[in-house]
Write a structure and sequence with these properties.
This protein has about 525 residues and is of the alpha+beta class. It has three domains: about 230 residues, no CATH class; about 110 residues, no CATH class; about 70 residues. The protein is built from 16 helices and 16 strands.
Length: about 525
């Protein structure tokens, strides 16, 4: 296989030498002409969304003070034993169901032995040999939804996260923070069925949204909650995969794209020069946008896997096998299936086919974790304009999320309450700024947004006769103050400045109760009907 790849590279060597290819596109063109194609597989580590750790009762919280969330077990104090967190198992089952995996009704835990300072046990508890789920498939959209690709999922396993090593360059010391030690992880392993940056990034993005909708993982890559290990090799047509390189701990979609493009270019360049790609582990430098060698893997590392003696097999049940008359401290898969949250593919279909959104609009709501909330708001008030709700969420709610740091589910405002508020805005009882302010106040208030509107006496005037009366009074007042106010008025297209002055005075006279959207057309109508002088 290597001989054939070398022949391909030598055949195109003259092309590369003459053009001095440096960009990814040039190397990609060369690879295509040489019948070289990338094969990509991923190992994704998703930090489970749980208040407690995997095998201890310690709190799981991002950015807590150093070593403030460490139990005796987390620090590997002798005599302490692991106790499995049920919530972490439920998250694994939900994920396996969403990824169409075969659940192992009895899985086992293993010890993976290696020494590193942030792993005080000297091993990691994982599920290498008999994981909780295997053999799944996962579909995701490509090319703005025009295509769908499916990838094979090899397995999903539960395992512990490690602590963090904190390096101080000034003192040349390394410190250990065990807050993250023993936090629950889902390791999701794919087959090498991805072929480039586009489909790989699309897969990770869809998986991220799936885990978020399931509540299994918050998916904040910038906080290390979703980390990607990438395995990439170049292979000739109809040949087995070439030697792969692994790039660990990629923490962003844009970083993932850069890594793939750099590794394709690096490996193709090596082959073009007649060399061989080394099997090694590499790290990504996000500043220089390159990967650098960490350690080689010419010989498989012996982790000395052995059964975890302090944990029994993890047994799952269904309706038929579930124990009777117990404290229900077990996992019933059928029960979780009935509670299964909607996944992005199905939710995207509802947003586009039933609620009339375009693909990019649906993707925006999914990325911002607002899709389910948007759907529920429209289900609560079918007469609401989908465009009004979408624009309100896109402009106002996203801004509030950014400044306040909450998600829609954490806001405390229900879909029905927001539907009632936006119905008032649609019916011109309140304006846009009032609806935003009412929602924002409700975030820290026990009252609903509508109750806040009522308590502040914001409900506007919708009686058109009353509004017309205010308009007549405003025109009369402005004319008294300036007899030439309406001079040379063009009734066909009333001057914008004149309209704005009248509308502004109407709002003032009505103490804000008359809304601009209702007042403006009345003013224009009155001006058009005035006799020219």
């Amino acid at each position: 296989m290597l001989t054939r790849i070398r022949c391909c590279t030598r055949a195109a060597h003259r092309y590369l030498s003459s053009t001095q290819a440096d960009t990814f596109d040039e190397w990609k063109k060369y690879a295509d002409e040489s019948n070289l194609s990338p094969m990509i597989g991923l190992e994704i580590h998703a930090q489970i969304n749980s208040t407690a750790k995997l095998f201890s009762g310690s709190e799981n919280k991002f950015m807590a003070p150093t070593n403030s969330l460490v139990s005796n077990y987390d620090a590997s104090v002798p005599g302490t034993l692991p106790v499995l967190n049920k919530r972490c198992v439920e998250a694994a089952v939900y994920t396996a169901l969403a990824l169409n995996c075969k659940l192992n009704m009895q899985s086992q835990f293993d010890r993976k032995h290696y020494f590193y300072a942030d792993t005080p046990q000297g091993y990691q508890i994982t599920q290498q040999r008999c994981p909780i789920a295997v053999n799944g498939t996962f579909s995701f959209p490509l090319s703005s939804g025009k295509k769908v690709k499916t990838i094979h999922i090899q397995q999903i396993q539960l395992e512990q996260d490690s602590g963090k090593s904190l390096h101080d360059d000034e003192t040349n010391h390394t410190y250990i923070d065990l807050n993250r030690a023993n936090v629950g992880l889902l390791e999701i392993v794919t087959s090498p069925g991805l072929t480039g940056a586009e489909d790989t990034c699309a897969f990770v993005k869809e998986l991220q949204m799936t885990l978020q909708l399931l509540g299994a993982c918050d998916g904040k890559m910038q906080e290390g909650q979703l980390r990607v290990d990438l395995n990439l090799s170049m292979s000739g047509k109809d040949e087995k995969p070439g030697t792969r390189a692994e790039v660990k701990n990629i923490s962003g979609i844009s970083h993932l794209k850069d890594v793939i493009e750099y590794e394709i270019k690096r490996q193709v360049q090596i082959l073009n020069d007649g060399g061989t790609v080394e099997q090694e582990t590499r790290a990504y430098d996000s500043v220089k946008k390159v990967t650098t060698s960490m350690r080689d893997k010419e010989e498989a590392q012996d982790y000395r896997f052995m059964p975890e003696p302090n944990l029994p097999p993890l047994t799952l049940y269904n309706d038929e096998t579930a124990p009777k008359n117990t404290d229900r401290n077990f996992i019933n898969v059928d029960e979780l299936k009935r509670k299964m949250p909607i996944i992005p593919g199905r939710l995207r279909e509802i947003l586009m086919q039933r609620l009339g959104l375009q693909y990019k609009q649906a993707e925006f709501l999914l990325e911002k974790q607002l899709a389910s909330f948007y759907r529920d708001v429209l289900y609560c008030a079918p007469d609401l304009s989908p465009t009004l709700v979408y624009n309100w969420m896109r402009i106002k709610l996203v801004a509030l999320q950014h400044t306040s740091g909450f998600t829609a589910s954490e806001s405390g405002v229900t879909a029905q309450e927001l539907a009632d508020l936006l119905t008032m805005e649609q019916n011109h009882l309140i304006n846009q700024s009032q609806s935003k302010e009412a929602f924002e106040l409700a975030l820290t208030d026990v009252r609903s947004p509508v109750q806040i509107v009522k308590d502040n006496d914001w409900i506007g005037i919708i009686d058109m006769d009353v509004i017309r009366g205010f308009c007549d009074n405003a025109i009369a007042q402005l004319t008294d103050e300036n007899p030439d106010f309406l001079k040379n008025l063009n009734q066909e297209t009333p001057h914008t400045v004149i309209v704005r002055q009248i509308v502004g005075l109407v709002l003032k006279l009505s103490q804000g109760k008359a809304k601009r959207k209702l007042v403006t057309p009345v003013v224009i109508s009155i001006l058009k009907n005035l006799d020219s002088e």
